[in-house]
Each structure stands twice: as C-alpha cells, then as structure tokens.
User: Fold this.
Amino acid sequence: MYKDKILYRLRSFRKGFLSGEELARRTGISRTMVWKHISSLRGQGFTIEAVPSQGYRLAAEPDLLRKQDIASGLKIKVIGRDIQLFTTLVSTNTAAMELASKGAVEGTVIISEMQTGGKGRLGRKWISPKGNLYLSIILRPAIPTHKAPLITMSGAVAVASAIRSVCGVAVGIKWPNDILVSGKKVCGLLTEMSAEQDRIRHIVLGIGIDVNMRPDELPPDIRALTTTLSEAKGSTVNRTVLLRQLLRDMDHWYRQFLVQDADVLAEWKKLNVTFGRRITVSGTGELLEGIAQGIDEDGRLIVKQNNGVLRLIAAGDVTILKR
Amino acid sequence: MYKDKILYRLRSFRKGFLSGEELARRTGISRTMVWKHISSLRGQGFTIEAVPSQGYRLAAEPDLLRKQDIASGLKIKVIGRDIQLFTTLVSTNTAAMELASKGAVEGTVIISEMQTGGKGRLGRKWISPKGNLYLSIILRPAIPTHKAPLITMSGAVAVASAIRSVCGVAVGIKWPNDILVSGKKVCGLLTEMSAEQDRIRHIVLGIGIDVNMRPDELPPDIRALTTTLSEAKGSTVNRTVLLRQLLRDMDHWYRQFLVQDADVLAEWKKLNVTFGRRITVSGTGELLEGIAQGIDEDGRLIVKQNNGVLRLIAAGDVTILKR
Assistant:
C-alpha cells in the first residue's frame, strides 16, 4: 500500500531525485519506513539510485511479465484464450497437464517467471532462472497419436519464426526440435500427452527460451552448447514483445497444422540444419553414425548409416559432426 | 461373524439339509437370526435351498474372484507382480492410470467385479455388469510412442490365446483389436497412456471380456453384434481359470513384444479376420470403403479403396461387409 504509493511517486518523477523527506511527507509515513519500502522495492528488482542530500530516483523497473501487456489486442483465435501467469511454478508443463485433465479450454497458456523443477526431454532438468520465457500450451487436436510429433514441430516452427522476427537473428532447427541461434541452443520443447490408442485427449506443448539470463547461471557443460537471445542479439530482449509474437505465430502454425499438416513439415524442413550433415544419434540404446537424409511424414529422422543402410529414428539426441 | 459360521456349517454339510434349529444351536444364535443371515447370504449370491421340516442346504456359491485363487502359483515374470481386486470401481483403467502416475510397479493388475463407468474406445461406455472380467494392466515399456499400438495388439493376441485354450472355441481379431467368437465381439481393449514426444511414461492396457453376463443386460443394438463366452461355449465359464490363463498369456506376449515386436505382429496377422475382406471404415470423419490389405509395422490398417488408392488407417471402426 505505502510501497505502491512510493513507487507511484518515483515513477512520476524519473528525471530527478526525490528526497526521503518529501517521499515521507507525501505518503504520510516516517523517513525510516520510506527507507524500508525502498529496500523492499530493490528486492523486487527495481533499480533505485540513492544519492546523499539529493534522495532517490527510479533508474529501471524489473523486467516482469504482466498479463494485460501480454494479452491486450493479440487478435489470436485458439492459443491464449486463457492466459495464466505465475511468479514461480515447479513446472509449467506439470501445471498445464493437471489443468488439462480437469478440462481446461484448448489454447490455455501457462506462463511462469521461473521454474523450480523445470523439465527437459527424456527425464532431464531444464534450468529455469528468472529472465527467460517458460510457457506451456494446452491443445486438444482431433488427431491420431502418431501425428503428435507434428505438434512439437509446429511449436518449433513458431518459436523460430518469432525469434527471427523479434530479434532479427538467423534461426535453425536441429532434429528433433532444438532451436539454434549462432549454432547454439536457445530453446527446448517438451511435449506431454494423455492419449488412448485411437485419439489424443490432451497434449501440452512446453516451451523454454533462454532470453536474458546471465550466462553463468548455467553449468559449464551446458553453457558450452547453448546461448541466450540477448547474447546473440547483443542487447536485452523485450520478453513481452517476444512472447506476444510467439503466441501469434503458434496460433498460426497450430491452425495450419490442423488444416494441412504437410505445410508444417515443409516449413520445418526449410528451417532445419540437420539434413545432409554427418551426425551421431545417441540415447536410443546404441550410438549410430551416418548422414541425415530427411524426415518422414510423421517427423522421424531418416539416417543413412555408413554401411548404406537407411534407419528411421523416432527418438534420440543428434550431434552434428564438424565438416 | 455369525454369518461366516453359518456359511461354514452349510459348506461342511452339502450332501443334506441342516435344520434351522441345529444351525441356531451350533452358532449360538436364535432361529430368527439364522433366517436373517441366510437371507443376507442369498443377497450375496449364494444359492441356499430351504425345505420345510428339513432345513437349509448350500446348493451353489456365488462366482466371486478371490485374490489367492487368481495369484497362487501363477509363475509369471512381469504381469501380476501386484494384483489388486475390487468389488466395484468406476473404471479399472481410470484407477490404474491414477496408480501409475503415483509410481505403481510395472505389471500391476487392477481387477473389478463390475464397473459403474466402464470406458470403451473413442469416448464410448463399456457396459460392465457382474459376471464378466474387467482388468487393467500397468506397463512401462521403454519404447517410442508410435510403437504403442503394438501393446494393444499384444493384449489382443493374449486374450485370443487365453479364450481359445480355456473355452475351446475359435477366436478371431477384427482390426483394430476387437476379439470375435462366432463372428461376434466378446472383448474390447482400451489402451491409455501418459507420454512425452520421445518416450512413454506409462501405459494402461484395459481388457473387458463378456464371460457369463445375461445377454439381456446389454441394449438390443449392442446385443446384435456381441456374444458372451458362456453363450458361445454353451456353459458357464470359470472366470478364475480364464483370468489366470490371460495373465500368463499376457506375460508371455508382452515380454515377446519387448524382445521382438515383429513376433506379435505375425501372431496378430494369423488371428486376424479382416484381411482380404471388403470393409467400411467409419469414425475418421469420412466413410471409407475398400479391401483390407494388411497392416504396416506400426499396426495401421492398409485399405485399398475402390479407386485403387491405398490408404493407411490409424484409428476407426471397421465393419466387415457380407461376401
């Protein structure tokens, strides 16, 4: 309450300094209480300069997502019908799967500023400090289960498109769905689903994009293979703008998938950086080496092994070997 | 307590009648209470004859499944590691999916004497009165999601094998996985799974077999297309014996699937009654007619349409047209 009043005063007078005395008088509290609220605001991420004998000045606001900023005037049809924003969650995917099983509407988007137990593919962790984007989208497509990989591919195409248009950097997709900028990973996708043999009940598309985090927030082994959008662009990226563009592009590509899934495959192929390259595939129980030839209509990678045998790969990790 | 004592007396003297007076004396209760417990036992399905001036005689016990009868000496490796038996459940599949998400061991089997909300394929109901078999098996195979249909096919092969060996009747499989006896359906399978794009977390194989139910317990439209095992065999089928054989066969075919899934496909093909027949496929948004040619390696039905075009069908209902 008093903190909001102090913030309001600081926001209305950004060009100069407001003395502690004046802030105390205008809000009706003691100078000691003003100082306490200033400390609290700093703890929330506000940068507040303090100069003796001059007072306080709001230098920068924390980069926080706000629902109204994300949702206003989006003009989308399916994705974002319901947007739920959290400061922290264990995992946006876990939260979304629970909401989906309780009947949440298709297009519900769960966003969190950070995750304490973010999930990656194949049971791995996804390190999720503040400053990035973590979101999960609930979908209910009337498709057979073997078409599910194309949902993840729609997500990859949408992320690549949004990053390219907002950050102006070149983007590639490495099979299965890693998003690469400058040859390094900036985004991972984790799709989870509840299904019967004949139909998908619901599917959750989880997206984690490394945007503005400090590079040293990742362990060195992961750091070597990844980058952030701000590092690639050379400046801080506005997460709200990126998120809005992503929701728009996802809305477009998801609806395109429902109408004509071959269009998603075609766009994915244009963006891919795997075809024609010598690769290894691990995580399938064997280490396989060969040339990536393409993907089949269900998104499986076609690899020509050194002995000439063609293999269809449904799951695994690809490493692109140096030329 | 007293009811158990009366049951014990009746069981020990099946060849003749026990008077109400003698039952009252031996259990230490009044003749009126004896009569009340006899009524209660009849309500539980015991057939107890009563002849004036002679007394009571236990003519038949209810056909109830008992855990020790099912489990003792089964000699199976995976299926049935944990057997949970219920008198009534909403749905064995729903119960199994919940247990699986809480970490239940692979091979856990959930059995219920009846279901109040039994589920069929594609969101349909599975009418589940007493007298039949309803069970769900929790599996955790390390396979990609597109191989999931082969789990259902393993189940179909196991059910067909168990029915054939216990009931001595000819059994066929109609794509996708209806079990037919005398050309009519006696069993349905419903597979549900929780999965990521790269891996299955858990899969629940639900099996409902119409064994001894009265035919009039089904509505006429379903009745026309279905039969029960007792109807086909001409006598009551021992459900415990059938269930034990099914668990054994499922254990065999599931482990065979993990080692060499082509063996499951080969056995399924031998049992199928769809290939070479003129069929219609519905439930896919269009009504498709043609000749069933076979299945591909992922279990999809190959149909040659009248115009010569081959179609791959992943989901739907097949009707075999008369020759």
